[in-house]
Give the backbone structure.
Amino acid sequence: MIKTKKEIRLIKDSCKIVAEVLLHLRDYIKAGAVTKDIDRIAEDYILSNKGIPAFKGYQVQKIKFPASVCISINEEVVHGIPSDRILKDGDIVSVDVGVLKNGYYGDAAYTYEVGEINAKKKKLVSVTEKSLYLGIEKALDGNEVNDIGSTIQNYVESYGFGVVRVLCGHGIGKKLHEEPSIPNYYNRNYRQKLYNGMVIAIEPMINYKTPDVKWHDDGWTVVTSDGEPSAHFEHTVLITKNGPEILSKV
C-alpha cells in the first residue's frame, strides 16, 4: 500500500488529467446538454492528453461499463451510464472520472448544479462537499481509516443525511481499486492505519434521507431506495508526514 516516489509522480500525472476533465466539463453541464455528449467530451479530453478512460470496459460480475465517465443525476448515487438523457434546470449531476496513464490511475468526482436547484439539493451538495474536505483533514500519517469515516459520518448525520454503507473509497495506484477500503462511516471492526506514502481515494456518497440504495437493471446505476437525491464528491489523496496532499485538484 506504500507507494514509491516514482509511483506517486505517475499517479499525480493521471490525477492531473482527472482534475482538468472535471474543470473542463463545467462549461458543458447545463440545461439541454445530453449526457452521452458530456461523456464524449470527457473521453476526447482524456485521450488527447495520452490517458485512457479508466472506467470504459471496467468489468464487475461479467458486466462491462460502457462509457468513459459515470454521470449520475438526482436520485442516482453513482455509476450512472451516459445516454440520450437531457439535463434539466434544477438537476444535480455527479460526474466520476478515472484515468489510467503510464500504468497508474487517478480518480475524482464532483457534483454539479444545473441552473437553479432547490434548497434541499443545495444543502445536500454543500454538506457532502464539506464532508469530503473534513475527511481529508484526518488523512494523517498514524491515524486510522476510521478517523476519516467517523468525521464524515458525524458531520453528515448532524444534518439528518444518510451515509451510503455498501460503497466506499479505496486505495489506488497500479489498480483502480486497491487496499485499503475507505468507508465514510465508523466501523469498529476495521482498524486499518494510515501511513506516509499511501494513496487513497476518499469519496463520500451522501443521500438526502436513508443510506439505503438499490441497483437498476443495467447492473451499474446505484440509486437511493426512497427516490430522494444523492451527492458524491471524491479526491485522490496522498498521505505524507506533513499532512494530506490532494492529487486530483487543479
